[in-house]
Amino acid sequence: MNRDKGEFVYISAVIPAYNAEKFIGRAIKSIIKQSCTVKEIIVIDDGSEDKTVEIVHELSQTYPLIKLHTQKNAGASSARNSGIHEATGDWILFLDADDECSEELVEAYLAKIIEVKEEVSVIYTAYYQINDNSKVISMQLSGKRLSATEGFCDILIRNPIISPSGVLVNKKHLNDLHGFNTQIKYVEDVDLWVRLLDSNYSIEYIDRPLSYIRRHSNNTTSSMSTSHNAEKLIMDQYGVDYIKEKLYKRSYTMEKNSLDFALFLIRYKHWKQCEELLENTRILEDSPHYNSYCFLKSIIYIEDKRFDEALDEYEKILVADVTHGAALNNSGVIYAMNGNKEQAITNMEQALLLFPGYLDVKHNMTLLEDSETDKSLFRFTLRELRPVLLSYSTD
Q1: What are the residue boundaries of the structural domains of the chain, listed by start?
Q2: Please, what's the b/e burial string for 24-51 (b: 16 or more CB within 10 A of its CB; e: otherwise)?
Q3: Count H helices, E strands: the chain?
Q4: Positive or negative CA dihedral for 237, 239, 242, 243?
């Protein structure tokens, strides 16, 4: 691929596959149809027991750029690392076997490489979620550029890179960090992005939805609790003190840094320390961080079963923002626990109207239909919502 002043950029697509017969053909063809061709498509079959290998082999007869490698089942991280090892390109375009991408993806990446003068480590785009029939089922899921310390913190707070699928990575930097950590079975991509950012590499972003992530019950991280538990394992590799040091090095206001640290204290279940931090952090109602401040206090109150105090915080939030989904759900739970079923339903219906895929609300609405429901079964949402919710299975 011609880049600039006679320099060439070669891209290898790497597709890890396990029992992917239903979608592997679509994934491969979305790479073949690129307006700028890749050097090779490397499929690493991770011990499939269905017709995945047969499908890939048949396609390779028509498209010689497809290279099939097989291995005993060892997981997605191992399969991606095998693909990295086999790749001869300077860049690796990862695509999961059940996903697809726009035919303009590679062209957009090449343009970005030329545009950015400094050495690039990773590039990703906005996403659409698609269903089994490749129909778009979500609004655009947007991200942002991530750089060094601020990016390290951003990833751990709320990872904007929805999936490694569709992401382009500098092979040299992958090799420098020894690829994916095979000891991490879920969200192993988050671990890689964090390690890259901690090594002062940057991650570029293209604000066009050129990657299509398929959501179905067989997704490895389709479970919300699985994803959150895996994120906690990644955080534990660094520890709360290291994360605090990173947070307070950022060029944000003290109140922003303190609120983000409070969020980590909650995730580490350091409840007392978090409460003390929030008590010493004064944020006024006209601050853009006021709702987050109230929400974090509410989570402390919920943990301590001070539900009336938590409800006061949600009422403050909803005065300022009637579309705050987590406040609507959580206040609805408290209303339900207090016997005010009508108000509970009103709040939860509003949350579901705003966020149709909101699993906590769906769960709680089902419980509200049973007058004998055990109150402990209601689900509070412990993090503020993304603007567009991801699709997960129920837990």
Answers
A1: 11-236, 253-377
A2: bbbbbebbbebebebbbbbbbbbbbeee
A3: 16, 9
A4: positive
**How deeply is 269 buried, as exposed, middle or buried, from its count of CB atoms within 10 A (0-12, 13-18, 19+)?**
exposed
305: Cβ contacts below 8 Å, ≥ 6 apart: none
Burial class of residue 22 (count of CB atoms within 10 Å of its CB; 0-12, 13-18, 19+) = middle
Using a pLDDT cut of 90, give the percent of the chain over it. Answer: 83
Amino acid at 130: I
Per the structure block, which two tokens stand in for 347?
């709040």
Cβ-based neighbour number of residue 252 at 10 Å: 16
CA–CA separation, 260 and 255 (whole Å): 9
Burial 312-345 (b: 16+ CB within 10 A, else e): ebbebbbeeeeebbbbbbbbbbbbbeeeeeeebb
Question: If we measure between CA atoms, which residue out of 267, 266, 291, 262 comes closest to residue 278?
Answer: 262
Token reading at 186: 């879920």
CATH superfamily of 253-377: Tetratricopeptide repeat domain (1.25.40.10)
Q: How far apart are CA 162 and CA 357, in angstroms?
A: 16
The band of 391, judged by pLDDT with boundaries at 50, 70 and 90, is low
**Would you say 123 and 47 are in contact if contact means Cβ atoms under 8 Å apart?**
no
Asked whether this chain's domains 11-236 and 253-377 adopt the same fold, the reply is no
pLDDT score of 271 more than 60: yes
Residue located via tokens 């396990």: 18
Which CATH class for the 11-236 domain? alpha beta
pTM higher than 0.85: yes
Please give the span between the terminal C-alpha atoms of the chain, in angstroms, as a whole number: 45
Burial (CB count within 10 angstroms: exposed 0-12, middle 13-18, buried 19+), residue 293: buried
Taking the C-alpha atoms of residue 188 and residue 191, their distance in angstroms, rounded to an integer, is 5
Phi, psi (degrees; rounded to nearest 5) at 189: -65, -40
Dump pLDDT digits (tens) for 276-325.
999 999 899 999 999 999 999 999 999 999 999 999 999 999 999 999 99
CB-based contact 120:3 (threshold 8 Å): no
In this predicted model, what pLDDT tens digit does every residue of 49-90 receive, in sequence order?
Answer: 999 999 999 999 999 999 999 999 999 999 999 999 999 999
Residue 41 Rama label (left phi>0; alpha psi -120 to 50; beta)? beta
What rounded mean pLDDT belongs to the chain?
A: 92
